[in-house]
Amino acid sequence: MFFAIKNIINKLPSYISQAKSSTFSKQRKSSLNLGSTEFLTQRLLFSFSKMDNQQNQDIKNNQYSQPKRLGERDAFVGKWLKMKYIDFEIRGKKIENYESIERTTRIKNTPYDGVATFAIIKKDNQPSKLIIIANYRAPVDKFVLEIPAGLMDTPDLVQNAIRELKEETGYTAEEQPLKVSNKESPPTYTDPWRSCSCTKSVFLEVNGNKQENINPKQDLEDAESIFVHLIDIDENITDTLTTLAEKHGYIISSTLWCFAQGIQFAKTFQV
């Protein structure tokens, strides 16, 4: 789209020149009486229509061919991650040494790497709250507000979600996950331009009245430092996150922010 708009803008002087020429039709010349802005708008709309028709024809003629993977090789292999060079062909042109990052920990025959746990805690006579964490992330040297999440240890998605929630927050979730959709979460990608890493999502409920959830105790790994926060699920949820971040010097993960924006949008506009 950017190149199409740029092409139209580059041709504007030509359109104006045509409008002033004797070969321009009377009907199109008459549009000049509406003023230059209206004339240029008409030309832009006409050009966009022409562009769409050409694009449809290109697709029909299969000029937009499916990119083809030609090969890949490891550049570096670590304990948790590896860097790869990928060669592929797109529109007849060979692209070499595209840099990509991949996890080394994916379970065989499992098309995703981890699970994100959206957990709601409920207590008698209190509003439900969302369980989030502030997780220290060495690459940014800050605590990041996130949804509890982790890598898959076994192929059982729900049990991995329950385990990650327990380890990172200390809370024990109910065995039966909350059903928010008729279908299981698909693998979702945060940054597919550089990595094939992906996760599935699970929604869990925590009974805050149970003894085990009154004074929950985390079970963190050596490289983990995590603070737990319970936040209201309302039309001010993004304000809650930004206030929390400003107060403690946190930053916010895109996954949590987009989830919160979805909640706030739905509650604000009642959709």
UniProtKB/TrEMBL annotation:
It comes from Tetrahymena thermophila (strain SB210). InterPro entries: NUDIX_hydrolase-like_dom_sf (IPR015797), NUDIX_hydrolase_dom (IPR000086). This is NUDIX hydrolase. Pfam families: NUDIX. Keywords: Hydrolase. GO terms for biological process: nucleoside phosphate metabolic process; ribose phosphate metabolic process. One of its GO terms (molecular function) is hydrolase activity. Residues 127-233 form the Nudix hydrolase domain.
